[in-house]
Amino acid sequence: PKASGTTSLLATASVSLGTLAEMPVTYCDRAYEEVMTWTEKTKIKYAPNKKSGKSFFRYGKYMKAATVGEALRLGSYGLDLLFDFEKGLLWSTGGPKRERPPDVSKEAGVSREELKKMNPTDQMLGKMYAKWQMWKKTFKLLDEHKMTRQQLKDMNNEQDPEGGKDSIEVAIGRREAQEKARTILKAIKAEGGRRVTDEEVLSCLQLWGFKENVNRGNVMPEGAKFVHSDTIGLI
User: Fold this and answer.
1) Backbone phi, then psi, for 91, in 5-degree steps?
2) 26 to 132, 144, 185, 199: CA distances (angstroms)
3) Which of 56, 84, 207, 227 is least surrounded by Cβ atoms within 10 Å, i.e. has the fewest?
4) Alpha carbons 41 and 145: distance in angstroms, whole number
């Protein structure tokens, strides 16, 4: 195929990366590692109220709590537990603890009925724990690909033309493939507009993040829930 100007090497697979999750409010691992061991009945104690604004009044209500469950009932948010612990305003004084909150994800097979039977503390900490684990994996991926959190933010909300939502792994792979394609096209232009080689196309495809397509039942192996596929056009 003939390359021209700044035309993308992978035409239909452009920079549309899908809508990624919003960046989280993150706290230190030590805060997560402690708070995630708490239960509804874990005993806690708060430091005197030194906050200001709306937080002063909210903290003033839930600082009277003697257990985690009571703190949440009095107005503390889940993220307040992390923030207050990290800032030295909250600590546990006894009572039951555990290794980690219950798994509340669909992947673990937890039904809505089972979720409703859990107390509010388990539900909240379970969801927070799942998000913490997800973002730890995400940040590890960013480090491995030498990508900043700002670059991940910049990819947010770029909608896939087909209305799909790509995983972060797919988004990173597509970004790297696009950068590779731009480098190749720049070299081709400097060399007088020669033809793109098969090896150059392959080098981009090897980086490309292919979608987990659940709609290709005609080519899906028995027992599989998806195949990696995309429709890609060349100019």
Assistant:
1) -155, 160
2) 8, 19, 39, 42
3) 56
4) 42
Q: Are 29 and 132 in contact (CB under 8 A)?
A: no
What does the pLDDT look like over 83-94, one tens digit per residue? 999 999 999 999
Read off the amino acid at residue 156: N
Kindly report, residue by residue over 57-106, the tens digit of the pLDDT: 999 999 999 999 999 999 999 999 999 999 999 999 999 999 989 888 77
At 42 the three-state DSSP class reads coil
Largest CA distance in the chain: 75
Q: How far apart are CA 170 and CA 55, in angstroms?
A: 39
Count of alpha carbons within 13 angstroms of residue 190, beta-carbon side: 6
DSSP bridge partners of 45: 91
* Residue 56, phi then psi, degrees to nearest 5: -60, -45
* Whole-angstrom distance, CA of residue 231 vs CA of residue 37: 46
Which residues are CB-neighbours of 180 under 8 A, at least 6 positions away?
203, 204, 207
Q: In the beta sheet, which residues pair with residue 212? A: 228
Which pair of tokens denotes residue 228? Answer: 């990696």
Distance of CA 173 to the CA centre of its chain: 15
Residues 94-105 as b or e (16 or more Cβ within 10 Å = b): eeeeeeebbebe
